[in-house]
Amino acid sequence: MSSNKSVLVLGATGGIGGEVARQLRDAGWQVRALKRGAEQPTERRDGVNWLRGDAMNRQDIIHAAKGCSVIVHAVNPPGYRQWSKLVLPMLDNTIAAATAEGATIVLPGTVYNFGPDALPVLHEDSPQHPVTRKGAIRVELEKRLLKASHNGARVLIVRAGDFFGPKAGQSWFSQGLVKPGHPVKTVSYPGERGVGHQWSYLPDVAQTIVELLARRDALDPFACFHMAGHWDADGTRMTQAIRRAVLHHTEREPRVTAFPWWLLTLVSPFVTTFREMREMRYLWRTPVQMDNTRLVAVLGHEPHTPLDEAVEATLIGVGSIAPDQQNDITHRIFGQGHHASFIGTSLHGGRDKVE
Fold it and tell me: Could you give all domains of the chain from N- to C-terminal order, each with its CATH number?
């Protein structure tokens, strides 16, 4: 197995990128990250070597990736602006750097590649017939990575369900179910009654990536894996976990209401984010479940934080549990030990949007 444990993480100030960077650091990797507008060319902070650079500048990426065996591509354009125009050129920059170094590109994947015809159970080789603009771009991202795997680079894609976690940024959990920074009085659920849905806790996704990278030399040049995450069979498991966490610490049980899709329909012509959320409604009307057989065959297991623990840490991270309650809750989470190390680290750092 390769002894080179130098990695460049693009998007390390965001949710999944930041979590992967911290866990790789803790696993003994030498972690580099780019930071736009940094005052100094390099800065060592929290065990990460931060370099001044921009993921939209190819030479910055090539320079930062020198000597790296892995590049984690978890980056989005600033403020998510012009995502559809910039996301493919940004990936091309990463591919150029990885090809030059013979490095492995890691892409955190989503279910957006798949249209209704592939549901309800998604396998790594399920047909990809996206019905949304974002889904079509996701398919093109993976096509370009497949081509790169034939030209000297290696590729690892880990697809997961809807992200949630303390630093997950803009996700369905924080955009739909709860309001970040506010006490949880109402849980607004986007799904149809009785329709199953899959969730993925960011620290679990990051740990999966770290464990797969430890075995990267044994993987195919283009390797793709699905995570099972947290399966909510009827749409009530996640909302009830939120209610339990809030009730335990505030003695006020929040109501569960239907997500206001009608409002998104009304304002989507004027707000791009709302329009894209509305396009994804098909993923809430049909069960979406991912098969992790291939992942378990390689790792022997899937990293999995208990749902109540993961939801509680997420509510703390998004500021939906009052500050005067956080110390006691964090102490209790740390005291459990099993997942405390990476839950704790994920409570700190910047917050960017996560697709």
Answer: 6-345 (3.40.50.720)
Contacts of 294 (CB under 8 A, 6+ apart): 124, 225, 226
206 residue type, one letter: A
pLDDT digits (tens, 9 = 90+) for 66-85: 999 999 999 987 666 677 78
pLDDT in tens, 82-103: 777 889 999 999 999 999 999 9
Whole-prediction pTM value?
0.88
Distance CA 242, CA 315 (A): 8
Question: Distance between CA atoms of 212 and 308, rounded to whole angstroms?
Answer: 26
Those residues with Cβ within 8 angstroms of residue 228's Cβ, 6 or more apart along the chain or in another chain: 198, 289, 290, 291, 292, 295, 302
**Widest distance between CA atoms in the chain:** 58
CA dihedral of 148, 162, 228, 15, whole degrees rounded to 10 = 60
Tell me the torsion sign for CA atoms 295, 10, 278, 170: positive
- Spatial CA neighbour of 210 closest among 5, 54, 43, 68: 5
Lookup: tokens for 314:
């997420």
Q: Who's near 117: CB < 8 A, 6+ residues apart?
A: 127, 129
Output the 3-class SS for 127-157: CCCCCCHHHHHHHHHHHHHHHHHCCCCEEEE
Angle of helix 133-149 relative to helix 272-279, nearest 10 degrees, comes to 80
DSSP labels, 263-282: HHHHHTTT-HHHHHHHHTTH
Scored b (16 or more CB within 10 A) or e, 260-292 reads eeeebeeebeeeeebbbbbbbbebbeebbbbeb
| Residue 193, amino acid | R
